[in-house]
User: What shape does this take?
Amino acid sequence: MKKPPRPPGAAVTAAEVGRRAGVSQSAVSRAFSPGKSISSKTRQKVLAAADELGYRPNLIARSLMTRRSNIVGLAVAPLENPFYAALVKELAQGLRPSGRHLLLFPAASQTEPDPQIEEVLSYHVDALILASTTLSSTLANRCRSLGVPVLLINRASPLEGVSTITGENHRGGETIARFLLAGGHRRIAYIAGLEHTSTSRDREAGLVEGLRQGGVELFARAVGDYSVERAVAAARALLDAPERPDAIFVANDYMALPVIQLIRGEYGLRVPEDISLVGFDGIPEAGYSGSGLTTYSQPVAGFVAGALSVLDSLIENTGALGSGVQVEGQLIVRSSARLPQTGLIECDGTQTWIG
Amino acid sequence: MKKPPRPPGAAVTAAEVGRRAGVSQSAVSRAFSPGKSISSKTRQKVLAAADELGYRPNLIARSLMTRRSNIVGLAVAPLENPFYAALVKELAQGLRPSGRHLLLFPAASQTEPDPQIEEVLSYHVDALILASTTLSSTLANRCRSLGVPVLLINRASPLEGVSTITGENHRGGETIARFLLAGGHRRIAYIAGLEHTSTSRDREAGLVEGLRQGGVELFARAVGDYSVERAVAAARALLDAPERPDAIFVANDYMALPVIQLIRGEYGLRVPEDISLVGFDGIPEAGYSGSGLTTYSQPVAGFVAGALSVLDSLIENTGALGSGVQVEGQLIVRSSARLPQTGLIECDGTQTWIG
Assistant: This one.
């Protein structure tokens, strides 16, 4: 077993590595800096020498000088929702060229979704991303007073100076309303997500607005809290009522998939002949042959591209004001909802509705 | 908008915060150290003073003295598989009391799954966890020579001095073989995951061994690479063959769910009357009413508890040899596979097979 050639604690320097590898100290530094130009042969020489000597470049010490930690804090909540799982994965991947990495801060709980502020700040994060969680004004103020840029993904914020990347929640809800009306539905219900979130509120507001334009009122609503168990209970409440809805818009696909299975399995109803279902997000599972979920799709790649670009400008210029990026979505039409007579277009095997 | 009271760069000290809050400097330090005892009133005073002065404790500088970064590197691959999404979420949550946080290192690619070694090490991680990815001997050697403990979750490793938390892959495969034989099946096929992984190999070896004990050979196999698209293609290959299998063990639930939908939907076959399906992992989606997937379940909580305990002992004593923890699983019986006459037990609404 290879041992480091000196007692731990006595740090090997970049100059020593350079001497051993027969290259300059600057080549050693370039070998350890992501994105820096260096030939693969030189890089191999440096790594071999570093390995022999037990050297590791100290990004942490370097960060004390550059005031950059290359750490981006990420407060994540519901990784069980494939939309967020994909978002985190693609975000981590997208950060690679910049040499930055995501440090995960779990929510204290669903009712107290803020990460522990002092812990986040003590890592000297270059920026803080909140994906899916709402930003409290306490956390926003503390970050602002310390010059730590904050970026919200898939959440709006009424707070000043906060950057956001959001989907077309209102427009999506409105499109779904018009789509269901065009399909001949009149008893249209909504299964909400967490009531305090902008996603659930805006999707519902769009739905109600779209129905109103068609002269129809929201038939019923129930709350699924973005949880599978609560969504199934909400669907039961709607289906067990004296008069059933003939269509349900479920606030996200993650809730819609078990609901569709409940309706077909336990209630023995035909989808879409007896009842239509529409979701939101466009997670891959919605497209599986047995699901066939019609859904307002918001592309993860769009959120990630927006986040990376905003993040760059925030970190390079911390004085920047908050900006808002909106990611476009589209209604992907599959088999879980009745088809309108018009407005359907097909492109590359995907059917969308532009009614 | 609140401004820090001095130009950026001039650091506020803990002593100044203590004076402003009217508490000792040690109280300031305790207020910012996770798990340290301090009254909530004192903590509030310290945080208010810190906020006014724009103070943030410098864990990074502290880590240079303590040689602890409180950062645990995590090389994650397939977050799209709910098993790993849950694992990462619960691991982050489980680390909270220790004050450690996970820094994500995305795989370079599926064929080159190692994280960028030098980047990982430059953050001075206290430990490196590889979840789902195989450990290369290069990465293992480099970590060992630098005294960075490595922990593999859900992967075995032939390398010396590496700690692992694995499930009962072989025993699970064997149990599934005996279960399917007891259900009267004789044409039993396997859809493999990534061929080089210990999970896929050991599950198949267990299946083949269990079948052999029953005097039956593996009927057919195809490779799904732990990908939905490849699993669906593999299932098609098995179903389009001149003679079909009457049961398929799919190496994980993430692949089994779209396969079951394909079989019911596109092939119009009845599950389990025409063909039985069994998965592995026990992800929540397998239990949805419409899926009803029989699966060898390995509890995420068991992996997390094992990981936290091994991690603690590795970080406190980096000289520790690699240890192996095995997490027990059980065959959860639902409706996707024919029931044997004997061996079924029900407990708290969950049916298992102990045949």
The longest helix of chain B spans residues 300-316. The two ends of chain B are 68 Å apart (CA to CA). Residues 1-9 of chain B have pLDDT under 50 and may be disordered.
